[in-house]
Every structure is written in C-alpha cells, then in structure tokens.
Amino acid sequence: PGRIDLDRGRILHYPRIAGLDDYPLSDHLSHRYGVPAYLHNNAALVALAEQRYGAAAEARSLLSLLVRSGVGGAYLENGKPLTVLGRTAMEVGHMSLDCEGPPCSCGGRGCLEAYIAEEGILSFVPAKFGAGSMSDLEGLIASGNAEFLAALEEPLKVFQVALRNLYTLFAPECFLIVGRSAAYAELLADRMRGALSDLTDMEGKSVRFLADRYDPERIGRGAADLVFERFLG
Known about the structure:
Blueprint: E1 3-5, E2 10-13, H1 25-33, H2 42-53, E3 61-67, E4 71-77, E5 80-81, H3 112-116, H4 118-122, H5 134-143, H6 146-151, H7 153-170, E6 174-179, H8 182-195, E7 208-213, H9 216-232
Parallel strand pairs: 3-6, 6-7
Antiparallel strand pairs: 1-2, 3-4, 4-5
Helix pairs in contact: 2-9, 7-8
C-alpha cells in the first residue's frame, strides 16, 4: 500500500505503518526467499483482478477505488495500470477536497480518505447509533434509517465531487468501488449512479458504477498474473 517505486521495489511513503518511508521491500523479500521479487501497488492489483475476473470484467477503461483503512485508486486502460513515469501508482485517497476539512493520516486535511475510508465514514455516524465497526455500519445500512443516512450526506457529497473530478481527468467507462464491506461499497456505488447519471464514456454510453467485496483470493490471482507477465513475458 501507499506510494511505491516500481523500478527500485521500494515503498516511498505509507503513513499508517511507521518505518516504511523509502523501505526496500523487494530487496528484503528477494534476500529472504532467494528469488526476484516484484512490487506493485495493492489498489492496482485490485483493479487488475476485478477487470480480469470480477465485477468489471472486460471493461476497456476502469477507475477502481479500494476503500478499506485507507483509499487507494487505480486507472486501467486496455488492461494496463497507469503509473506515473512507469514508476508509481495513483494516490487518490490523499486528493484534498477541502483544505480546512478533517485531518488525514498523511498530515493533510480534507483528503478523500478522511471522508470515506472505514474510520472516516464511521466518524460521521452520530454517537447514538453506536457504530464502532464496519459490521455496525452494515446493519445501519440494511435498516435504511433515514437519520443515519442523512448523517452520511457530507462524505457522500465529497465522494461525488471526487469522482466527477476523476472522470474529468480520465473519462473511464466505469468506476468500481471495492471494500471489505459489500454493503458499504454498494451504498457508495448506488449513490453515485444517481448523483452522476449525466456522465458518459467516449462513445456516449452512460458511465457504470460498480461495487464488489474485497476478495483476497481474486487479488492474489491478479498478483500472480503480474508475476507471470513480468518474468515469463
């Protein structure tokens, strides 16, 4: 997770775990196991796996958001993840939507992560609902409680602005939200279907908003694909 350097196999920055700045993960793994190790961003692996085997199968252009303790993002076009100078992936979770907004783990304020990551969204739920975990949140989503849903309007509005900005930059055929909670991922996608129904792809078709549950086995399959492509051509 975090900002990585694909060429050097290093984690450049990941604020949630101390000691990972400029951390040579690939070198450590290669030394430990005696084989070459290839590093890639976790959100990019999610996007690749979902485009090949999951909810976004066959999408030519896909912008995927991995919503867990943080928010990762990846853009795929024709099955290839976008990297900056071929070396690192997108960090959409730390895109600031309000410079005076809630504090973020990166040290900034108003980042997308502070609004819709698991800890972020729970902070918007009124204390009387007792939502201390994502399981609690799932129960509230299923209940359809109007007061609870009204409390989420601010983070959902911020998410809407973020996706509209990302659409302006990338114009994907579809957006995909992946999370540990299928109910929460679907809530995010469903709200965007209504709020961003005006968006169209390059061929004039409505942009799709998809949701899926984080599946480690599927992600591992996507990672294995990258290994085969890297080492076997």
